[in-house]
Protein 1
Amino acid sequence: MSELLPIDHRYAGEHEEAQVSRVLTWLSVMATAFLIVIGAKSWASDHMVHAWVLWSFAIALSINMAYFARTGNLAFQKFSLLLIVSILFAYLVATGGESNTGPLWLYAFPPLLFYVTSLRVGTVVLVLCTVIAFIVFSFPELPFVTAEYHTDFKIRFFSTLIFESMFCYILEASRLKARNELVKQADSLEKAARTDELTRLPNRRDMQSRLQMEFSRYQRAGHHFSIALLDLDLFKNINDSAGHDAGDDVLKQFATLAQSIVRQTDVIARWGGEEFLILLPDTSLLQALSLAERLRSEVASYPFEFRGKELPVTISAGVCTIAKAGTLEELLRQADANLYNAKESGRNRIAPRVRTRDEPVAEPADA
Ligand SMILES: Nc1nc2c(ncn2[C@@H]2O[C@H](COP(=O)(O)OP(=O)(O)OP(=O)(O)O)[C@@H](O)[C@H]2O)c(=O)[nH]1
């Protein structure tokens, strides 16, 4: 039974990754520039150690950018950027930076963290950072802590940081929800654009892209494939005698029957009107003829009916293999010509003719 092609979001995913990586690169460039300038300011104020520490972080960020430009490893870029920024913030909180304003830079962390990681990882890292900041604030006598903060500042700092973190969480959660909603909508639109509304089979557009893919596979690796172009015989008579609804229902019944007969790897699509096309990957002409013949005979003996009334349904088919055609256009043209021959020879048959038990026949020249 054929399935619709799975929607490929790899392109969208890659596009998103590229965008994240661009944002991270720009943030790294800006942070490096800030660190150089603030480091220079500290140098000018005779805070040599602080200046050198800030420049070291600027160097670390530059190395991270250069490494990413060389390897393109986004996961590593994210991880090392977060690590550098976390250590920088820990340093700023512990030393107070310039005039005890270092902790203020921590406000830049929540949006960056949620953007770069997930909501869960971001929350865990933020809680950890808050705990570390709390320890530094509470125990100024710790060996690596040189700054002391006013109680008022500590209370305001924590409450605003927690408020900002929650706000960023909510914003990121709604951004992700909207994004997932859009992806879902794009998914169903894409599916609808590739599905025939009446039979729920892949439509002509979908089949054309599958044919193109199969043809590329044939050109690349020499995998042969065949097609069978099917047409319901004298379908107009069904519409005329039993009504358009009956015709529609017959098309649906035929689609279900045909899907149950073709292999999992074969694809049957509604090619248009009462015409269907089966794509048979890795299938020779003889195998394709045998499948088409089986389908023809199953259809001829299947009790199609509409509102209790039995309807006589048969199909004709033109089969062709890529080995005999060379190009997709020629393949379709030959299958169509064979279908025409099948109709001309009396319908309810396959062309080129296949040898049956009770009717041994030679293959025609156009096979
Ligand atoms: N009910 C219904 N009829 C359709 C649909 N699509 C095409 N048709 C009808 O299919 C009929 C095709 O008629 P023709 O092209 O004359 O072919 P045919 O009667 O099948 O005769 P042969 O192909 O020569 O065997 C037309 O009457 C179309 O209106 C559909 O979706 N539903």
Protein 2
Amino acid sequence: MAERKESWTSLASLLGTLAFCQTFLQLVLPPELRLASLKFLTRALRCFSSYCYFDVAEMDGVNTNELYNAVQLYLSSFASTSASASRLSLTRARNSSVTTFGLSNNDSIADVFDGVAVQWEHAVTQRQSQPSSWRSIPDVFDGVAVQWEHAGTQRQSQPSSWRSIPDEKRGFTLRIKKRDKDLILNSYLDRIMDKANDIRRNNQERLIYTNSRGSESRGRPWEAVPFKHPSTFDTLAMDPEKKRDIMEDLRDFAAGQAFYQRTGRAWKRGYLLYGPPGTGKSSMIAAMANFLGYEIYDLGLTEVPSNSELRKLLMKTSSKSIIVIEDIDCSVNLSNGSKAPKAPPLQSYSADPDTPDAVSGGKNWNNTMTLSGLLNFTDGLWSCCGSERIFVFTTNHIDKLDPALLRSGRMDMHICMSYCSYPALKILLHNYLGSEGEDLSEVAASELREAVEKAKMTPADISEVLIKKRRNREKAVSELLEVMKARAEGNEEYGGLREKCESNGVEEEEEEKRALESPKGVSDREDDSCKKAEDQEEKKAN
Ligand SMILES: Nc1ncnc2c1ncn2[C@@H]1O[C@H](COP(=O)(O)OP(=O)(O)OP(=O)(O)O)[C@@H](O)[C@H]1O
């Protein structure tokens, strides 16, 4: 007992002595000297430490240090879930729904990279007041030199030329074990820059670009507007398995930099979307862009007069983008010369309105853009200019495409968007009525299943019915059933008519005409187009 009392007494006297020394030093030493000795002590301690430290200051002279911003964004991506950060700052930009987490002043956070533990500390100190000469700015008016001096104290608003230099000095300090420094420093900083770029891209508004005639001469080959299409893979009505395959393919592509490098391939991928109108080809493109966070370049080939213009346009697309050519079968006469042109070559015209062609067709066609010019970008030497780009071509008539476009290796994935199946219908029911039909009676569900297979309606047709009646779920379902049954009957009638025509030797072309004119009937040939195309591809592959 006496021993414990003695130790408490000696501890108290030690603390008293330390307090006395501190007060004495504060009285005797001027603040500058105190600061210098503190710095010296810190440095001396760091010499013996097993850690090394890297300061990342917010300002590099008068310029902002990019690395500081990147570190801030990077740390904010996991600060809210990190157990090591005890106090976080929260910020949200005006008109933004994104909350950014940051490290509070002088707080620290741990991170692990390649199995190596590191620590970041955010240091904020008050900037020492600047000499008055620094706070003044010279000006000359009518040959007379004048000088402006800002007489405000810190934190008061400053002239705009100083506004970029904050009153506080902010910086991050990275602490790494000395033995790990050479192992990870560069790759760790690269990873931080990449991650920060990704976060920036996800936070900022994405754009959809389009080209128009003469925009190149105006100095802006692409015109852009914010891209806000709400379509996602969740809202897209299609076979879930097919959807999963596409999503996996996209995910592999986006994460495949090393793979493409290793295999000597340009980091790009091509998708051909085909199927009847209203089956969701455009919605699929929007879903792809939203899934990957990419921007879209909607390339109107009719506005591109020549291969060289096309090259200029494509060279000005950014990476992490989807380059879309919709309705490739009808917007241009892209034949390699292997097929006689069926339609006027819409893609090329001169600006001269007085030429005979312009008079006759409204445009003066001057066919200088070719399929090989286009394929050079999707497939050839130029495909490597820019990286991480996706090409998407869409068509309602895959059978009308030049075989060169379909050759293996051209478009990596051919995706058939077809009529609504029962699994796809369930997604539409969920989108519009808030249930996947699980609250339907067994009879209604099986009726729907049967009717949707026979009706051969596009998701667009079905959406139309559901959206009209979405306030009353039961009515919506019963009306949909009615419409689908009527459509199925129409198809059957049409099927019978077709058989009769065939037995009477009516030409195929006439049959096609009837199909187009029929308000309800869907040609079996159209219905089977996806299957046929898929079968053909399978045969080719074998
Ligand atoms: N698979 C689908 N999933 C969800 N909605 C769809 C789907 N297909 C069509 N829709 C609905 O129909 C509308 C039109 O579809 P979309 O423009 O994507 O079809 P498309 O196949 O590109 O047609 P087109 O060939 O005429 O361009 C969409 O806005 C969407 O509301």
